[in-house]
Amino acid sequence: MTAGSPATPVSRAPRSLRAAAGLLALTAVTAAACSSGSTGPRLKVTGAYVPRPASPDVAAAYFTISDSGDKGDELTGVTADVSAQAMMHQSTGRTMRMVDRVPVPAHGRLTFAPGGYHVMLEHPTRSLREGDHVRLTLRFRRSASITVDAPVEPVGYRPGASP
Question: Is 84 domain-assigned?
Fold first, then answer.
């Protein structure tokens, strides 16, 4: 455009030029959002479940935590809507010990599964039957707490196993 020439209003510009201008504006907004550090949650909890307990006095909860961040985190506690005492344990061989913290590796996964880490739900406040749900709240050292819904599955249930 030269000095003194009239400007073309955007509404009269060719459709392809208007589309390009819109795309450029969208790209600028997206770049600004990405550079501001708003990348969304870096921790994700999946596969939560509680096998139907064999005893009315104790149940177990299992899940997987994935961390897409660079620093890792630590799971520092779990609460459950059906138990005043939800404690983290680790089984190794024939021993089981209570743990206060469990590391969640950066760009990795922490799996709570039978024979390893698990959450013991002591003295559930109600009978847990298949199809029921338990609300678990996981607390972390660096990240915000995450609440998940864990369905009560049949005894012996294993995620991904063929029926």
Answer: yes
